[in-house]
Each structure stands twice: as C-alpha cells, then as structure tokens.
Amino acid sequence: MQSPMPTLDPAASSGLPLYKEVKRQIVQALSAAEWKPGDMIPSEKQLCARFGVSIGTLRKAIDDLVAENILVRHQGRGTFVAVHHRGPRLFRFFNLVDGEGQRTYPQLEITGFSKGRADKAVAARLGLATGARIYRIATVRSIEGKPLLAEDITLSQDLFPGLTAEKVHQRPSTLYNLYQVAYGINVVRIEEGVQAAIADDEYARRLGMPPGLPVLQVRRVAFSYNDQPVEYRVSHIDTRNHEYFRAVS
C-alpha cells in the first residue's frame, strides 16, 4: 500500500497557485500508476484530507484535469482516469473529416514492424540519445476500403519492452489503448506540425494514388504525464475527399 501524499503547505510548495500544486501532485500519482486507466480516483473528501485543501481548491484542480481529458467525470458514479477506446473521446486525436464535415474512424492495417536505432532527428523528438533502440511501425488507415492516410510510428524500446508485431496486430482496440493496457502509458496530449507535401513513389503506393499528387504531412509527438514524449508519428494524408479539421476553444 502506498504512503499517503503529505499535506500541501502553500508556503513551501513549488510557487504555483495551490490548486495547480494539487493538480501537479495528482498527475504525479497518475504517473506512478497509483490510479490506472479506468480506475475511479478517491472521493473529494478523501482527496481534500490527503492534500489538506478546501473543496473549492480541489475541484479547481480536478476541473483542469477533466478539461485536459486526463480524468473523466461520470454523473452519480465518480471521477475516473480516462481510457482510450473506440468511442467519442477517440476523435480528440483524429482530426480528419469528409466533405460533409463528418468524422468516421478508419480501419487500421499494420503494414510493417521493425527494430532499429534512432537518428538524430527522431531522438530529439522522443527525448532519446542518438542511436537509442526503437521500434518502427508502418500503418495504413482506410475508410470503406479506400486508403486515407499512411503513418510511420516510432517508439522507444525501453518504454515498450517486449513489443512485437503480433501484439500490435492482436491489440483489442486502438494503439493508444494498447499503450495504456499493456505498458501503463497514457497519452494525454499531442503536438502536431502540418505542411503540404508531394506523394513520392512509396506513399503513392501505400495510399493507392498516382505519384506526384499533393498530400498533407502531419508530424505528431504524443506525450504522457509530466510532458514525457512517448510516440513520434509522421502521417501522409490523401486530402482529395477529406480535410484536416480541428476546433480550438
């Protein structure tokens, strides 16, 4: 059984507003797997006692974590650690819509799995040393049998020990769900860069389109708790029938 976290002392904290310090320590507990994806966190009364703060301060911290999709409230049941699955929350990280603005989650096909070493650029994205051991996963996502995007995913072997092509193929849900269930790694946010590109022979073949046509290239780094980079993904997207859409509020 883990020792309870000490009561917070505003004067001795990190200099953050008290609710942000509470939030930071909740994230630390999540990072240490004290509460795993799908677990209900302790009640407000228990957390207030644990941190030595008022209900208002605690709720402000929880509100932030809910807004960031790290926690999920279920009316009448409690607050839970968010889980990646094939549901509405999935579209938080899927930003493609068809001509009518509708989102349909595509079918994922794993087309390649290999081990290698990180070059300087990949190492910088994942916070690794150049030459660190990595996995490379190639995928194609299709809607109604038509390829939509080709992805190249890079993962650290140290973060995902024992990952195999079989485990990736036999995952019960999404890749991010596999990261959660098998490795305790929860993707909580992403950073993306988007630019225009031209489909070379390889990506044209994977996308079933003529070489030389324009595609959208998206470079994504996925982060877990405490801003730890856990995945680097480069996607090439056929935008003839779909567009990249993201609402910002």
UniProtKB/TrEMBL annotation:
Keywords: DNA-binding, Transcription, Transcription regulation. It comes from the Bacteria. The keyword Transcription regulation applies. InterPro entries: Bact_HTH_transcr_reg, Chorismate_lyase_/UTRA_dom_sf, Tscrpt_reg_HTH_GntR, UTRA, WH-like_DNA-bd_sf, WH_DNA-bd_sf. One of its GO terms (biological process) is negative regulation of DNA-templated transcription. It holds the Pfam family GntR. SUPFAM superfamilies: Chorismate lyase-like (SSF64288), Winged helix' DNA-binding domain (SSF46785). Residues 16-84 form the HTH gntR-type domain. GO terms for molecular function: DNA binding; DNA-binding transcription factor activity. The keyword Transcription applies. This is GntR family transcriptional regulator. The lineage of its organism: Bacteria, Pseudomonadati, Pseudomonadota, Betaproteobacteria, Burkholderiales.
